[in-house]
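In pairs, describe these two lines:
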Amino acid sequence: MPQRRRDFADRINYREQASPPRAQDPLCAIAPLLRVRPELQAVCRFASQWDVPHDAKPAGWAQFHIVTTGNCLLERSGGHPLRLEAGDVLLLPHGDAHVVRSSARMCGSKSPIRIEHGNAIETKTNTEGKAATELICGRLHFEAATDSLVIATLPDVIVLRLGKEPLLDRMRMLVRAIHDELKGGRLGALAVATDLASALFVQMLRVHCERASDAGTLRLLSSLPSARAVSAMLRAPGHDWTLDALAAEAHVSRASLVRIFRKTAGVAPLAFLTDLRLGLARQRLASTEASIARVAAEVGYQSESAFARAFHRRFKTTPGRIRASRIT
């Protein structure tokens, strides 16, 4: 009898091993890293001329604005003003400092902004009457570690224009439900709106990952060898990595690692490392008080001037300007 049981178990194991492995969806592989915790901080109702500055946030925190009525401009240091319309959801994944303001600059003084406290959330407003622009503003915490691979690969700004996207009806319904909850101020409104916002931003990140031109970077995370190599880079970005060392971390040959990176992300491993280092440096400069020299050394640059040249090639701006944009 024991022998027959072993034979039967062997047949089951053989069938399992003979079955072809299922292809892993890269979005499923990184799904745990997309968990977020939103904090809805204010409903903004403005008329005429106005502007509201927002300080930079610590690493791991993003900032967001949901435009429900009207339009406005968002300005970041070193970038062109970005116009936002009703139905737009904007996310600053790295928490950069910025200013949100009225679209038109008019003569005369701006009306003072006052804060009103309702049942659910505070309201910032400069008008007693009808608002020309309304926004829901807040910040977003990534539940994964602050050095998450996904966070490191996100761009500085993500915008979804729900009003012009017929395929995003579900997200548009979430925005409408969040707005209605906060406006109604019923019992538990903030808790309900926060849960809805969590679903909204997970879907937003999913849509971005599906559409991103650099989606190959995300696919690197679903391949074990390349994920090992990228994880090693992120654990120690300042290490003097060589192709041999990265191949050893990935448990594959140099040629195999280069082939995986080129096929999946369109770049060689060391070119990917350079881009990752500079992205991490930009995030550090925008969200911490570390000196430029220290940040440069942390990501593997022995010379501050060499770091500045590489940084300018990548972002078309200087480390000093990114540092100056940080509002303390």
Notes: The chain has two domains: 28-213, 223-324. The two ends are 75 Å apart (CA to CA). The chain has 13 helices and eleven strands. The mean pLDDT is 82.
